[in-house]
Amino acid sequence: MSAAKTVAIIGAGPVGLAAAAHVLERGMTPVVLESGPEAGHAVRQWQHVQLFSPWEYNVDRAAARLLAPTGWNSPDPQVYPTGGELLAQYLVPLATRTLLKDVIHTSSRVSAVSRVGFDKARTKGREAAPFEIRYQNGKGPETLRADTVIDASGTWASPNPAGANGLPAIGEREAQARIAYGMPDVLGRDRERYAGKIVAVLGAGHSTIGTLTDLATLARQMPDTRPIWLLRGNDPAKAFGGGANDKLAARGELGTHFASLVASGEVQVEAEFSVAAISPSDGRLRIATSSACCGRSVVADELVIATGFRPDLSFLGEIRLRLDPAIEAPVALAPLIDPNEHSCGTVRPHGARELQQDDPGFYLAGMKSYGRAPTFLMITGYEQVRSIAADIAGDKEAAERVELELPETGVCTRGGVEGAVAASGCCGGPAPAGIDACCSDDAITKAAGKPGCGC
Ligand SMILES: Cc1cc2nc3c(=O)[nH]c(=O)nc-3n(C[C@H](O)[C@H](O)[C@H](O)COP(=O)(O)OP(=O)(O)OC[C@H]3O[C@@H](n4cnc5c(N)ncnc54)[C@H](O)[C@@H]3O)c2cc1C
Predict the structure, then answer these.
(1) What is the pLDDT, as a whole number, of residue 428?
(2) Which residues line ligand 1 (CB under 6 A)?
(3) Rounded to the nearest whole angstrom, what is the distance from the C-alpha of residue 154 to the centroid of ligand 1?
(4) Which residues, including other chains, have CB under 8 Å from residue 176's CB and lie 6 or more apart?
(5) Which of the listed residues 357, 379, 400 is the one where a domain comes to its end?
(6) Is the domain of 138 the same as that of 24?
(7) What pLDDT, on a 0 to 100 scale, did the predictor assign at position 34?
């Protein structure tokens, strides 16, 4: 019965492509609309970044089954690729060498989704009406009809602004020439921009600590480079992650190494720094905690804003969504990922039931399904779309089944950081009161005239 179903998939990122593979495997017809000129357009923007999940967590199973007959060489499951390798060794072959190549429409930006003949307010008969998807492809507005829609359009294009209140800081828009969002390629493409400069980085997630770590590396090569970490919270250790407790070892190691850069002073920390205003100052930027005269301020050549992302809901105005008002994720999913409650990425697997919206046949998936929560993993998205495709095909048993064991991502709370560092054998516990050290071993080695234990 499901054979004729057309499934529109918005976005050809890792999760959109996986969705298309699952839909195809179930005998249905996927149509993928991608705004960028190539599949994996968002990943391409951060291709210099080393992933913290190894290949075993980055390849969808249905996608691998599609790739197998093409002679695809499955990458070593234990190796950590960069974003560029994820593209070259997986996403590009998947999009160009398998059956998917005929269903992906690139340079096709979805601008609106509705139901044929039904505005949002009209109910009777609504569930039987096909979806109408408007998109722009440079040749004028196009329309696609589909039985169901999976929105896997990610959040990369809608980064959060600098303001702690969720709004752009006063002067942020005017200062765009010296501001970058997300994770610039500090050691590669953007090296000239940052070498020898004072660079402030605002945020507390993995992009922040990755960028600051790269800036510290750049500072060793170009000594005038000075990284400054602007942190809204009062506890830098919260950003260090699960350390040795993180099953995604590369991520744990990144946090542990970053902690050592902070402890050694290679990264200057400005804690409890909520950006409210940005203004020009002698050819530089003054970044201040208040737009009035008396707040704290930092002067820098460049500002990187890495305060996370939010979903673009602008083209879903005619769709009946049921999202958590704070996290902007589906209501059934939000409590599992709410960053106010969970600092870790360990989330129980979930699927169609949680992601189905109030408009029957409309699902959110991938990074976008997490709304403003920062802890999304590709492998979570692959399980989401396996379940969604089963649901659309009418295989409710498979839709409900959990086929995924997510990696434990460590105890990421303050207590967990201490536990994690202790577990790594690096530290002996908290530093004595009044001593400038990150832990007791650090205090002991500093007292002995050494630079510290490096934890
Ligand atoms: C720097 C960084 C590092 C990360 N590292 C990891 C990691 O190590 N391991 C891990 O598991 N996860 C990681 N993630 C998180 C997440 O898994 C990735 O962001 C992943 O790319 C999400 O896949 P997605 O398909 O949901 O979204 P995206 O990769 O963002 O793909 C969405 C696609 O939709 C397109 N699109 C957007 N709007 C429209 C529109 N209106 N119409 C049509 N197309 C549209 C975009 O161009 C894009 O190609 C990382 C994220 C970032 C930002």
Answers:
(1) 44
(2) 10-16, 33-36, 41-43, 46, 49, 51-53, 57, 109-110, 152-154, 156-157, 183, 207, 315, 366-367, 376-378, 381
(3) 5
(4) none
(5) 400
(6) yes
(7) 98
CATH number at residue 384: 3.50.50.60
Rounded to two decimals, the pTM is: 0.87
- Do 179 and 285 fall into the same domain? yes
- Pairwise CA distance, residues 14 & 32, whole Å: 12
Domain containing residue 211: 173-234+271-305
pLDDT in tens, 126-158: 999 999 999 999 888 999 999 999 999 999 999
Residues 45-65, mean pLDDT to the nearest whole number: 95
Exposure b/e, 121-154, CB count within 10 A at least 16 = b = eeeeebeebbbbbebeeeeeebebebbbbbbbbb
Residue 395 lies in a domain: yes
Tell me whether residue 256 is in a domain.
Answer: no
Residues 6+ apart with CB under 8 A from 245: 252, 408, 410, 411, 416, 419, 420, 423
- Over residues 261-280, the pLDDT tens digits come to 999 999 999 999 999 999 99
Tell whether 178 is covered by a domain.
yes
